Task: structure prediction
Amino acid sequence: MEELIYAEDVEKYYGSKNNLTKALDRVTFHVNRGEFTAIMGASGSGKTTLLNVLATVDTVTSGHIYYGKEDITGLNEDQKSDFRKENLGFVFQEFNLLDTLTLEENISLAMSLSGKTKKEISSRTKEIMERLGIWEMRQKFPYQVSGGQKQRCACARALINQPRIIFADEPTGALDSKSSRMLLETFTQMNEHMGATILMVTHDAFSASYCKRILFLKDGQIFHELIRGDKKRRDFLNEILDVLSVTGGDSYAG
Ligand code: ADP
Result:
């Protein structure tokens, strides 16, 4: 399998000398192309910090993060911004759609800086919206559709530039259980049929059970990993719950 990301001995401290918080403690792991990975852990375990440093949104205190051969910890702000645009997609808990644009415009806008022609942009937007089942509502504005539909729009926007990886931070956090299930099925479809590599932060075992691999964080360290393999999702869920019952915390929530 092709290695996409290698995080090597990553540490992240917040605060100043007298008041230091160690958010990440010598984190080392790989992400391969085509994986659908969850990062789990109790509140405060370092999940969001890890996602943010992997996504160049935050800087590491020490260690390295390689995308292929490129060490992104050495990039300056402009280079990081270009790197994000060219390589990364994001799905946030709060959707982050623009209220004054239709769903179609929200998605095509993300592609407008790519140098592609109008025709290419509209045909790619249509293709992705159809695949995610939201083409019928292309002329609606975000406030006119459900949370689940907004989140599928956010997925389409994340996918449109064919990023190397999509980062999702608690993407089901604002959704009811039916919409959550649909979003997780959408992620599975994106991963299995559209070639998307996805890394999702969640504290919710049900959401994590849709993934192929789970990294468990505790006190800023990776302390356990589960691989789904051929297991049924229900069996994988039980396995996840077993790990969480050992670690405690708020990990059952959601
Ligand atoms: P999680 O996403 O698992 O809830 P975080 O990555 O948000 O955990 O936080 C990890 C640790 O780092 C926590 O102790 C948190 O209080 C601390 N932390 C996170 N962000 C900051 C910040 N900007 N300034 C100071 N401490 C922070």
